[in-house]
Protein backbone atom coordinates (compact mmCIF):
# COMPACT_ATOMS: atom_id res chain seq x y z
CA UNK A 1 0.00 0.00 0.00
CA UNK A 2 1.16 3.53 -0.72
CA UNK A 3 2.25 5.60 2.24
CA UNK A 4 0.42 8.76 1.15
CA UNK A 5 -3.30 8.42 1.94
CA UNK A 6 -5.65 8.50 -1.01
CA UNK A 7 -8.37 10.08 1.15
CA UNK A 8 -7.82 12.23 4.23
CA UNK A 9 -10.39 13.85 6.49
CA UNK A 10 -9.03 16.26 9.12
CA UNK A 11 -11.26 17.60 11.91
CA UNK A 12 -14.32 17.60 9.62
CA UNK A 13 -17.44 19.29 11.00
CA UNK A 14 -20.96 19.13 9.57
CA UNK A 15 -24.16 20.69 10.85
CA UNK A 16 -27.75 20.38 9.68
CA UNK A 17 -29.17 23.47 11.32
CA UNK A 18 -28.54 23.04 15.05
CA UNK A 19 -27.78 19.32 14.65
CA UNK A 20 -24.05 18.56 14.76
CA UNK A 21 -23.94 15.60 12.36
CA UNK A 22 -20.15 15.18 12.13
CA UNK A 23 -17.90 16.15 15.03
CA UNK A 24 -14.12 16.37 14.56
CA UNK A 25 -13.94 13.50 12.06
CA UNK A 26 -10.36 12.56 11.18
CA UNK A 27 -9.74 9.56 8.97
CA UNK A 28 -7.33 8.45 6.27
CA UNK A 29 -7.64 5.70 3.68
CA UNK A 30 -4.57 4.46 1.82
CA UNK A 31 -4.58 3.26 -1.76
CA UNK A 32 -5.69 -0.36 -1.91
CA UNK A 33 -7.18 -0.31 1.60
CA UNK A 34 -10.67 -1.60 2.40
CA UNK A 35 -12.36 0.25 5.25
CA UNK A 36 -15.81 -0.63 6.60
CA UNK A 37 -17.79 2.00 8.51
CA UNK A 38 -20.51 0.79 10.86
CA UNK A 39 -22.64 2.16 13.65
CA UNK A 40 -26.27 2.82 14.61
CA UNK A 41 -28.66 4.76 12.40
CA UNK A 42 -28.11 8.50 12.65
CA UNK A 43 -24.46 8.17 13.66
CA UNK A 44 -23.18 10.17 10.67
CA UNK A 45 -21.90 7.33 8.47
CA UNK A 46 -23.73 8.27 5.27
CA UNK A 47 -23.15 11.97 5.87
CA UNK A 48 -19.40 11.36 6.06
CA UNK A 49 -19.46 9.40 2.78
CA UNK A 50 -21.47 12.13 1.06
CA UNK A 51 -19.07 14.82 2.28
CA UNK A 52 -16.10 12.95 0.78
CA UNK A 53 -17.86 12.94 -2.59
CA UNK A 54 -18.80 16.61 -2.33
CA UNK A 55 -22.53 15.81 -2.22
CA UNK A 56 -22.72 17.48 1.20
CA UNK A 57 -20.69 20.52 2.20
CA UNK A 58 -18.86 20.39 5.51
CA UNK A 59 -18.58 23.52 7.65
CA UNK A 60 -15.17 22.88 9.13
CA UNK A 61 -12.00 20.86 8.67
CA UNK A 62 -10.47 19.60 5.46
CA UNK A 63 -11.11 16.79 2.99
CA UNK A 64 -8.46 15.72 0.49
CA UNK A 65 -8.92 13.10 -2.23
CA UNK A 66 -6.06 12.00 -4.51
CA UNK A 67 -4.05 15.08 -3.60
CA UNK A 68 -6.91 17.51 -4.22
CA UNK A 69 -8.55 19.57 -1.48
CA UNK A 70 -12.34 19.72 -1.58
CA UNK A 71 -13.59 23.30 -1.41
CA UNK A 72 -16.95 25.01 -1.79
CA UNK A 73 -16.14 25.71 -5.44
CA UNK A 74 -18.27 23.60 -7.80
CA UNK A 75 -15.28 22.78 -10.00
CA UNK A 76 -13.51 21.35 -6.95
CA UNK A 77 -16.45 19.00 -6.40
CA UNK A 78 -16.38 17.91 -10.03
CA UNK A 79 -12.64 17.18 -9.84
CA UNK A 80 -13.11 15.09 -6.71
CA UNK A 81 -16.00 13.13 -8.23
CA UNK A 82 -13.80 12.21 -11.20
CA UNK A 83 -11.65 10.25 -8.74
CA UNK A 84 -14.48 8.69 -6.73
CA UNK A 85 -17.08 6.06 -7.59
CA UNK A 86 -20.28 6.17 -5.52
CA UNK A 87 -22.86 3.44 -4.97
CA UNK A 88 -25.98 4.47 -3.07
CA UNK A 89 -28.67 2.64 -1.10
CA UNK A 90 -31.04 3.21 -3.99
CA UNK A 91 -29.78 2.33 -7.44
CA UNK A 92 -30.39 5.73 -9.09
CA UNK A 93 -30.41 4.28 -12.60
CA UNK A 94 -32.05 6.26 -15.40
CA UNK A 95 -35.28 4.34 -16.10
CA UNK A 96 -35.56 5.52 -19.73
CA UNK A 97 -32.08 4.29 -20.66
CA UNK A 98 -30.94 0.72 -21.22
CA UNK A 99 -28.41 -0.83 -18.87
CA UNK A 100 -25.67 -0.25 -21.45
CA UNK A 101 -26.74 3.39 -21.93
CA UNK A 102 -26.76 3.96 -18.16
CA UNK A 103 -23.12 2.84 -18.08
CA UNK A 104 -21.92 4.81 -21.12
CA UNK A 105 -23.56 8.17 -20.39
CA UNK A 106 -21.00 9.62 -17.96
CA UNK A 107 -17.86 8.40 -19.78
CA UNK A 108 -19.14 10.06 -22.97
CA UNK A 109 -20.29 13.33 -21.37
CA UNK A 110 -17.75 13.78 -18.58
CA UNK A 111 -14.65 12.05 -19.93
CA UNK A 112 -15.40 12.74 -23.63
CA UNK A 113 -15.01 9.08 -24.57
CA UNK A 114 -16.27 8.01 -27.98
CA UNK A 115 -19.41 5.93 -28.04
CA UNK A 116 -17.46 2.88 -29.15
CA UNK A 117 -14.88 3.27 -26.38
CA UNK A 118 -17.56 3.90 -23.74
CA UNK A 119 -19.52 0.84 -24.85
CA UNK A 120 -16.42 -1.36 -24.81
CA UNK A 121 -15.64 -0.26 -21.27
CA UNK A 122 -19.27 -0.68 -20.17
CA UNK A 123 -19.46 -4.21 -21.53
CA UNK A 124 -16.21 -5.05 -19.74
CA UNK A 125 -17.53 -3.95 -16.37
CA UNK A 126 -21.00 -5.38 -16.88
CA UNK A 127 -19.27 -8.68 -17.53
CA UNK A 128 -17.16 -8.19 -14.41
CA UNK A 129 -20.30 -7.88 -12.26
CA UNK A 130 -21.84 -10.88 -14.07
CA UNK A 131 -24.68 -9.07 -15.78
CA UNK A 132 -23.52 -8.47 -19.36
CA UNK A 133 -26.44 -10.49 -20.74
CA UNK A 134 -28.81 -7.78 -19.43
CA UNK A 135 -27.11 -4.93 -21.30
CA UNK A 136 -30.02 -4.18 -23.64
CA UNK A 137 -32.74 -4.33 -20.99
CA UNK A 138 -34.16 -1.43 -18.97
CA UNK A 139 -33.79 -1.09 -15.18
CA UNK A 140 -37.43 -1.98 -14.53
CA UNK A 141 -36.82 -5.39 -16.12
CA UNK A 142 -34.11 -6.26 -13.57
CA UNK A 143 -34.26 -7.39 -9.94
CA UNK A 144 -32.99 -5.12 -7.19
CA UNK A 145 -29.78 -7.11 -6.88
CA UNK A 146 -29.19 -6.88 -10.61
CA UNK A 147 -29.83 -3.14 -10.60
CA UNK A 148 -27.33 -2.62 -7.79
CA UNK A 149 -24.73 -4.61 -9.71
CA UNK A 150 -25.39 -2.33 -12.68
CA UNK A 151 -24.88 0.67 -10.38
CA UNK A 152 -21.49 -0.75 -9.37
CA UNK A 153 -20.54 -1.31 -13.01
CA UNK A 154 -21.63 2.21 -13.89
CA UNK A 155 -19.36 3.63 -11.18
CA UNK A 156 -16.44 1.48 -12.35
CA UNK A 157 -16.86 2.78 -15.90
CA UNK A 158 -15.48 6.12 -14.70
CA UNK A 159 -12.21 4.43 -13.63
CA UNK A 160 -12.40 5.72 -10.04
CA UNK A 161 -9.43 5.53 -7.68
CA UNK A 162 -11.72 4.79 -4.74
CA UNK A 163 -15.21 3.31 -4.45
CA UNK A 164 -17.61 4.64 -1.81
CA UNK A 165 -20.52 2.39 -0.84
CA UNK A 166 -23.40 3.82 1.19
CA UNK A 167 -25.28 0.80 2.61
CA UNK A 168 -25.48 -0.79 -0.86
CA UNK A 169 -27.51 -3.81 0.27
CA UNK A 170 -29.99 -2.11 2.62
CA UNK A 171 -32.71 -1.73 -0.03
CA UNK A 172 -32.43 -5.33 -1.22
CA UNK A 173 -34.45 -8.42 -0.40
CA UNK A 174 -32.35 -10.84 1.68
CA UNK A 175 -31.87 -13.32 -1.15
CA UNK A 176 -30.37 -10.58 -3.35
CA UNK A 177 -27.82 -9.36 -0.80
CA UNK A 178 -25.28 -12.11 -1.46
CA UNK A 179 -24.98 -11.43 -5.19
CA UNK A 180 -24.05 -7.79 -4.50
CA UNK A 181 -21.66 -8.66 -1.66
CA UNK A 182 -19.97 -11.23 -3.91
CA UNK A 183 -19.27 -8.52 -6.50
CA UNK A 184 -17.92 -6.19 -3.82
CA UNK A 185 -15.71 -8.98 -2.47
CA UNK A 186 -14.32 -9.58 -5.95
CA UNK A 187 -13.50 -5.87 -6.27
CA UNK A 188 -11.72 -5.93 -2.91
CA UNK A 189 -9.65 -8.95 -3.93
CA UNK A 190 -8.67 -7.17 -7.14
CA UNK A 191 -7.18 -4.32 -5.07
CA UNK A 192 -9.86 -1.63 -5.37
CA UNK A 193 -9.68 1.01 -2.64
CA UNK A 194 -13.03 0.89 -0.82
CA UNK A 195 -14.80 2.83 1.91
CA UNK A 196 -18.05 1.03 2.69
CA UNK A 197 -20.87 1.92 5.05
CA UNK A 198 -22.66 -1.33 5.82
CA UNK A 199 -24.30 -3.49 8.47
CA UNK A 200 -23.11 -6.65 6.71
CA UNK A 201 -20.69 -7.76 9.38
CA UNK A 202 -19.76 -11.00 7.62
CA UNK A 203 -18.53 -8.91 4.69
CA UNK A 204 -16.59 -6.68 7.09
CA UNK A 205 -14.87 -9.63 8.72
CA UNK A 206 -13.97 -11.21 5.38
CA UNK A 207 -12.84 -8.16 3.43
CA UNK A 208 -12.00 -5.15 5.61
CA UNK A 209 -8.51 -4.06 6.57
CA UNK A 210 -10.03 -1.77 9.21
CA UNK A 211 -13.41 -1.25 10.82
CA UNK A 212 -14.53 2.24 11.84
CA UNK A 213 -17.32 2.50 14.42
CA UNK A 214 -19.30 5.74 14.61
CA UNK A 215 -21.86 7.03 17.10
CA UNK A 216 -23.44 10.49 17.50
CA UNK A 217 -21.34 11.99 14.73
CA UNK A 218 -17.99 10.80 16.05
CA UNK A 219 -15.53 8.01 15.30
CA UNK A 220 -15.34 6.29 18.67
CA UNK A 221 -13.50 3.10 17.74
CA UNK A 222 -11.13 1.99 14.98
CA UNK A 223 -9.52 -1.44 14.77
CA UNK A 224 -8.64 -4.43 12.64
CA UNK A 225 -11.75 -6.61 12.05
CA UNK A 226 -10.60 -9.42 14.32
CA UNK A 227 -9.94 -7.04 17.20
CA UNK A 228 -13.17 -5.11 16.68
CA UNK A 229 -15.42 -8.15 16.58
CA UNK A 230 -13.70 -10.18 19.28
CA UNK A 231 -12.69 -7.47 21.76
CA UNK A 232 -14.50 -4.17 21.11
CA UNK A 233 -13.08 -1.52 23.40
CA UNK A 234 -16.05 0.76 23.99
CA UNK A 235 -19.33 -0.06 25.68
CA UNK A 236 -21.26 1.44 22.78
CA UNK A 237 -19.54 -0.85 20.26
CA UNK A 238 -20.14 -3.82 22.53
CA UNK A 239 -23.86 -3.02 22.70
CA UNK A 240 -24.06 -2.49 18.94
CA UNK A 241 -22.40 -5.80 18.14
CA UNK A 242 -24.49 -7.67 20.73
CA UNK A 243 -27.67 -6.47 18.99
CA UNK A 244 -26.35 -7.11 15.49
CA UNK A 245 -24.72 -10.49 15.92
CA UNK A 246 -27.15 -12.22 18.30
UniProtKB/TrEMBL annotation:
Domain ABC transporter stretches: 7-241
Gene3D superfamilies: P-loop containing nucleotide triphosphate hydrolases
Keywords, alphabetical: ATP-binding, Nucleotide-binding, Transport
Molecular function (Gene Ontology), one example: ATP hydrolysis activity
Pfam families registered for this protein in UniProt: ABC_tran
Entry superkingdom: Bacteria
Matches recorded under InterPro entries: AAA+_ATPase, ABC_ATPase_HisP-typ, ABC_transporter-like_ATP-bd, ABC_transporter-like_CS, MetN_ABC_transporter-like, P-loop_NTPase
Similarity field: Belongs to the ABC transporter superfamily.
Name recorded for this polypeptide: Amino acid ABC transporter ATP-binding protein
Taxonomic source organism: Cereibacter changlensis
Amino acid sequence: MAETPLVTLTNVQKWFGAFHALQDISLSVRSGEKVVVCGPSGSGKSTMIRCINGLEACQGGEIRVAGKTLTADEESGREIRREVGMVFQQFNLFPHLTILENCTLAPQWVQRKSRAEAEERARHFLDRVHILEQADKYPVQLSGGQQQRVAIARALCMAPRIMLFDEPTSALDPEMVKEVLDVMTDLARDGMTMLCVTHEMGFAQAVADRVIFMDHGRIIEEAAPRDFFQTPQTRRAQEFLAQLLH
